[in-house]
Amino acid sequence: MAAKPRPGPTQREFSRDTANRAARVAEWQLRRRRSWLLESFVSTPPRILAFAGSARKDSLNRKLLAGGEVTLIDLNDYPLPLYHGDLEDAQGLPANAAKLVALITEHPALLVASPEYNSLITPLLKNTIDWCTRAEPNPFEGKVAAVVSASPGQFGGVRSAQVARQLLLHLGCHVVPAQCTLPRADEAFDDAGRLKDARAQKAAQRVAAELVRTTARLLP
Ligand SMILES: Cc1cc2nc3c(=O)[nH]c(=O)nc-3n(C[C@H](O)[C@H](O)[C@H](O)COP(=O)(O)O)c2cc1C
Questions:
Q1: Domain presence at residue 78
Q2: Which of 61, 64, 193, 209 is most deeply packed, by most CB within 10 A?
Q3: Smallest CA separation from ligand 1 atom 30, residue
Q4: What single-letter DSSP state applies at residue 46?
């Protein structure tokens, strides 16, 4: 007996099939776009602005920042007066503060090395940040940030790092959970300025990697 001819799809089935196919194509296109984005993040790591809250020639904290793919600036190149409201009223934002604000604005991520003075951040770091927050809008809002610290002491400047993290959070940064504190930092670097200890190297790399990953995820 001849096979009974299959009836063609009803109008409703036809529209459902077409809708499913369209959804599958859309999903495939989305996946392609996502993987392209991922690849572009990997090949173009987000730009990181790195600075230490020390102007010292042999700053251990600046050494801790060297080596990564970052825009490393030296706060010696951006000297600022101690913040004073009357000075601001008379002269506005100093030119160096404006330059720093521009740098912060054009980088999505910040890596801050925070030395410890009497359990707190240094006056240099606080003063620099204070001046920058006088710009409109606040350049720290929405940045992804990480904090590291180095000290010749046994705690590696951890108290300063905590304060710096709090300050950056308060200013609207997304501060990554990873942090690296380097105790006995005066003995930690070789003559080429590299960390001697593999564990310390890994800890610093973990912070940088988390900063890059989080920035890539949060970027629009
Ligand atoms: C005024 C002053 C206070 C300090 N207080 C601390 C402290 O509380 N904890 C600590 O670990 N180191 C303290 N130190 C030592 C600094 O960690 C050390 O000088 C360090 O090298 C500073 O960072 P830098 O090398 O990046 O300049 C202090 C240093 C100074 C000058």
A1: yes
A2: 64
A3: 117
A4: P
Query: Minimum mean pLDDT among 4-18, 157-171, 182-196: which range?
Result: 4-18
The residue range of the domain holding 184 is 47-218
Give the ligand 1 atom nearest the CA of 52.
26
pLDDT digits (tens, 9 = 90+) for 101-155: 999 999 999 999 999 999 999 999 999 999 999 999 999 999 999 999 999 999 9
Its pTM stands at: 0.82
Determine the residue of 72, 117, 158, 180 to mutate for testing ligand 1's pocket, defined as the one with the most ligand atoms within 8 A of the Cβ atom.
Answer: 117
Burial status of residue 98 (CB atoms within 10 A of its CB: 0-12, 13-18, 19 or more): middle
Q: Count of domains in the chain?
A: 1
40 assigned to some structural domain: no
For the ranges 8-12, 61-65, 175-179, 182-186, which has the lowest average pLDDT?
8-12
Q: What is the CA radius of gyration of the chain?
A: 25
Helices 158-170 and 123-132, axial angle in degrees (round to 10): 10
Which has more confidence, 24 or 209? 209
Q: Residue 77's domain is classified under what CATH number?
A: 3.40.50.360
Rounded distance from Cα 10 to ligand 1 centre (Å): 79
User: Which residues sit opposite 147 in a β-bridge?
Assistant: 112
Q: Is residue 26 part of a domain?
A: no
Bridge partners for 146 per DSSP: 111
Nearest-CA residue for ligand 1 atom 14 is 117
Ligand 1 pocket list (CB less than 6 A)? 52, 54, 56, 59-61, 115-119, 151-153, 155, 157
Domain membership flag for residue 18: no
